[in-house]
Specification:
The complex is a heterodimer of chains A (about 280) and B (about 270). With about 280 residues, chain A is mostly helical. Chain A has helices at about 15-35, 55-65, 65-100, 105-115, 120-135, 150-170, 175-185, 190-220, 220-225, 235-245, 250-270, 275; one strand spanning about 100. Chain A has 12 helices and 1 strand; from the N terminus they run H-H-H-E-H-H-H-H-H-H-H-H-H. Chain B has helices at about 10-40, 55-60, 65-95, 100-120, 125-130, 140-165, 170-175, 180-195, 195-210, 215-220, 225-235, 240-270, and strands at about 5, 40-45, 50. The chains are: A mainly alpha (about 280), B mainly alpha (about 270).
Chain lengths: ~280, ~270
């Protein structure tokens, strides 16, 4: 029976399907590979197809580029601060949506999911107008790190719904009888939360934090609109470098960003996978 | 698992719900209200905008050159969405068809790594295109569609993946046992059963594709502008915020209509089954 090619979900045995799969993989990963390979090319023009020899000088150049490094520091500061708040808000959101029945719940759920679905440009534009209307706009001489506050607020707004989603999935596996037992044995509401619910949520919190960090680090459109003058983040800096001229320095900088994203994603995956977290709950 | 009524524990409920709701009202709803206000306003001076209740900004959306642009955005996003679905569906059949935890991990990786990677991947095709140029991609709709498919594919993958994963395989086995071929089984059994996922995938791909800014900007080189590029110009160069606000809201209305279509579709399916 196992060898019967007509068995459902055995499409992968067909060579045509395999070819399609392979082509899609190439479509998705070849550009990234090309980008990485040519960051080591000893040529002045980025993406030059002619291989001129191996060099790491563009990495040195990227790391010596002060503006690029400032942009990198900004991106990191934004990502760390927005992640902390996003995970906190996301955890609260996940708990109240998971635990309570209340009027207009579908409306509240819709509102919380909306920042995930609406086009980024709408969110960027609306936040930019909001900050300017409220007089919260940072100017060129706002001292660091306060000139990043608008971007941080914007990043929290679009990333906490993702955190809530991830944490809520984790809460679904919580056994409420444990909570009842604790309450029967005299634990107060806060003790139950701190000693029982929070440890159960931990893998979800870590996965959510890594997700929020990556989302913040990689965001371009919303940052582009909410950043004040002279406030540059890593993706925005790369964008302006690409517009100016393409050099292997951009490839090198992008490679660093891709590597960082990859590492964080792998870690998030490890915490997200139920098989890896089953032994602690 | 039963849910607690919020009235049993009003303080606990408030402690968990209020921070989120306040945050959303302040940084999500209020900004939308403000663009709503600005979209009915006009520039009094270079920096000052007054809400006068004018409908001019909305009327300007129906100018021929903006309509051309809207139409282009719609068809580019439409073709990109169809391509995404056509690529995502068979690829997922492949991933789910092979067995083991490797594929599970692969599926996961695929979704997440790509969602993340694609955000930074914007410069790559430009780098390739400039050096190879065997196909003229830069500055053509084809190039922009290619780029949008590249960044949108993960959005299409996710919903189809979840609907395929939940599928009961015995329906397919029954169909094959009763003599239907692979194609017939696909068309009459597999596709209808996973249609909800396909519809969600289509909508969730189409919405961000329609609002794409960076792909037409870098790959279109100003030749293949979409709505978002015009919105950006109103803010960064033309300094016409009210018109930019009206355009963004228009894009938002399209989003709401599409989301409504999806809930309508879900509700109708719910009735049938």
């Amino acid at each position: 029976m196992k060898r019967n090619p007509k068995k459902p979900f055995e499409y992968s045995r067909k060579w045509s399907m395999r070819l399609l799969f392979l082509l899609t993989m190439i479509f998705l990963y070849a550009p990234i590979l090309v980008l990485i390979i040519f960051s080591f090319n000893d040529s002045r023009r980025g993406g030059n197809v002619v291989w001129k020899g191996f060099t790491t000088k563009y990495y040195a150049k990227a790391f010596a580029n002060e503006e690029l490094m400032l942009a990198f520091t900004n991106s990191m500061t934004i990502a760390v601060s927005s992640t902390i708040v996003s995970v906190f808000l996301g955890a609260m959101t996940a708990v109240f949506l998971w635990r309570f029945r209340f009027p207009f719940k579908p409306l509240a759920e819709g509102l919380i999911a909306l920042p995930i679905v609406i086009p980024e440009i709408c969110m960027g534009v609306s936040l930019a107008m909001f900050f300017s209307h409220m007089g919260l706009w940072t100017t060129g001489d706002t001292p660091w790190p306060f000139n990043l506050s608008n971007i941080i607020l914007a990043h929290i707004t679009f990333s906490f719904p993702f955190a809530a989603m991830v944490i809520r999935t984790r809460l679904q596996s919580f056994n409420r009888e444990i909570e009842e037992a604790a309450k029967d044995l005299g634990a107060r509401e806060f003790q139950v939360f701190r000693d029982i619910l929070l440890p159960h949520m931990k893998p979800g919190l870590i996965a959510a934090a890594l997700l929020c960090f990556t989302l913040s680090l990689d965001d371009f459109v919303i940052t582009f609109f909410t950043s004040g003058p002279n406030t540059v983040t890593f993706p925005v800096k790369i964008y302006s470098m690409v517009r100016f001229s393409i050099t292997p320095e951009i490839n090198a900088a992008s490679t660093v960003l891709i590597l960082l994203t990859l590492v964080l994603t792998f870690l998030a995956l490890r915490y997200q996978r139920p098989t890896d977290v089953s032994h602690d709950g | 698992m039963s849910l607690e009524d919020y009235r049993q524990q009003p303080t606990v409920f408030a402690a968990f719900a209020l921070p989120t709701l306040i945050w959303l009202l302040l940084f999500f709803v209020a900004p939308l209200v403000i663009i709503g206000m600005y979209s009915f306003g006009e520039n009094v001076t270079l920096v000052e905008i007054k809400t006068t209740g004018t409908l001019d900004n909305y009327a300007r959306i129906f100018q021929p050159e903006i309509l051309v642009l809207l139409w282009r955005s719609l068809w580019i996003a439409g073709i990109a969405t169809i391509l995404c679905l056509v690529i995502a569906y068979p690829v997922l059949l492949n991933i789910l068809g092979t067995r083991g935890r490797l594929n599970e991990a692969l599926g996961w990786l695929w979704e997440i790594a790509d969602a993340a990677l694609n955000r930074v991947g914007f410069g790559q095709w430009q780098l390739l295109g400039e050096s190879f140029t065997p196909l003229k991609m830069l500055g053509t709709p084809g190039g922009v569609i290619f780029g949008i498919v590249y960044v949108s594919l993960p959005f299409a993958i996710l919903p189809i993946y979840s609907s395929l994963e939940r599928l009961n395989h015995s329906y397919l086995e029954a169909s094959l046992d009763l003599g239907a071929g692979q194609w017939k089984t696909f068309y009459h059994v597999l596709l209808p059963l996973t249609m909800a996922g396909v519809v969600t995938a289509a909508i969730i791909t189409f919405i961000p594709a329609l609002g794409q800014f960076i792909t037409p900007d870098l790959l279109g080189r100003g030749q293949v502008d979409m709505i978002a590029n015009v919105i950006e110009r109103q803010f960064k160069r033309a300094n016409d915020w009210p018109f930019g606000a009206a355009l963004s809201l228009f894009l938002l209305y399209i989003t709401f209509v599409l989301l409504a279509v999806r809930s309508f579709y879900d509700a109708r399916r719910g009735q049938n089954s």
